[in-house]
Amino acid sequence: MDATVILARARRLQANAGAVCALAEELRAQAWTDRDIVRQQVQRRAGRRIARLARGGSSAFELPKWTGDGLKETRERACPHCGDRTIAPRGHVRAVDGVVKAMYLCQDCKKGFVLVLTLLR
Ligand SMILES: [Zn+2]
After folding, report:
1. Ligand 1 center–CA 105 separation, angstroms
2. Contact assessment for residue 101 and residue 115, using Cβ atoms and an 8 Å cutoff
3. How far is ligand 1, taken at its centre, from the CA of residue 26, in Å?
4. Phi-psi region of 56 (alpha: psi -120 to 50; beta: other; left: phi over 0)
5. What CA–CA distances, in Å, run from 73 to 28, 95, 112?
6. Which residues contact 70 (CB under 8 A, 6 or more apart)?
7. Centroid of ligand 1 to alpha carbon of 59 (angstroms)
8. pLDDT tens-digit profile of 31-86?
9. pTM of the entire structure?
10. Distance from CA of residue 4 to its chain's centroid?
């Protein structure tokens, strides 16, 4: 193999490597753009995330019927009856006028109450 053939092959390989590098850079930029779009969508739908967390998980089950009317309401993650902070979600959640109301049960006094969560801005 003479030197000119080797040199031509090296230049071809160098050009290919440059093209692959440019493609990788393009894909990297697209991935960052996609990541920003997803982040913005999650921020716009903060209520869905809060509702999912309030009912205690990420399951997509149909929400049970709301039975929290008349129960004591609180904005603190603590029992409004006894003040204990060991509380558990009861799976009942509803969104009302920009807030999410979630039924909770105190693990200490076993009384139910409604935790009122404000949507993230
Ligand atoms: Zn309690």
Report:
1. 8
2. yes
3. 56
4. left
5. 48, 14, 10
6. none
7. 27
8. 999 888 887 877 777 677 676 666 666 555 555 667 788 899 999 999 999 999 99
9. 0.47
10. 58
